[in-house]
Amino acid sequence: MLVIEQETAALREEFIAVLGHDLRNPLASIDAGAKILLKTPLTDQATAVVQLMQKSVVRISAMINDVLDFARGRLGAGIGVTLSAADTSLMETLHQVIAELRTSAPSRAIEADIVLTEAINCDAGRLGQLLSNLLGNALTHGADNSPVRVRAATEGGMFTLSVANIGETITPAALKQMFQPFFRGGVRPSQQGLGLGLYIVSEIARAHGGAMTAVSEAHETRFTFRMPLQKS
Ligand SMILES: Nc1ncnc2c1ncn2[C@@H]1O[C@H](COP(=O)(O)OP(=O)(O)OP(=O)(O)O)[C@@H](O)[C@H]1O
Ligand SMILES: [Mg+2]
Predict the structure, then answer these.
(1) Beta-strand pair 110-115/148-155
(2) Of 17, 28, 124, 189, which is the most buried if we count CB atoms within 10 A?
(3) Pick the residue with more confidence: 74 or 185?
(4) 66 touches ligand 1 (CB under 6 Å)
């Protein structure tokens, strides 16, 4: 029995190592190659192809990171967070994530209302990742032509971060399963994704001593993260 457990542990470590290192390095080399190509004279068509390759690299990197987080969260000791009370960096991180998603979806309106008046004991990078997933979902799975609203606040000893969009109502059955790994709802085949985003979101929430809730009604779908300002 012990031998099997040791073998499983070794396999798990190897799996994480392969994902983290062995896949990322060749990907970085493709990215570097694409950058070099773009500096040389190319036809318009070739430029478009290289740019498409770069976008694929970004997409694959994101998937590797998600699978890596999944592996750590599910198979290892949980998603790692380093908590510190640097509230200004959280504010900057949240604004940066919103700016990134505005760039990737220029036609969409993202309204932000971020008012943080108290220190929050958190991992700003991980909360940025949480917001990025929720915002990405709102843009991908919500109605194309409607604005997405992000609200972050410190109130009553809690930090709250919510993302709301208009779109088709999520069924109660789907709402229940949504935070499970690899769950995907009625998505179109063109919507790529592994179904890991919300699982990672819920793991990040848990690691902060917080929790996620989701409400979907005819006029709005809203995902909310809440955590105590100081994890006890
Ligand atoms: N804002 C939303 N409105 C409607 N449905 C949503 C929303 N957010 C998530 N969903 C549903 O929940 C499912 C799971 O979301 P999750 O983020 O975990 O995976 P994904 O977006 O499909 O893929 P990825 O791994 O790239 O995030 C989605 O496939 C979608 O059906
Ligand atoms: Mg997602």
Answers:
(1) parallel
(2) 124
(3) 185
(4) yes
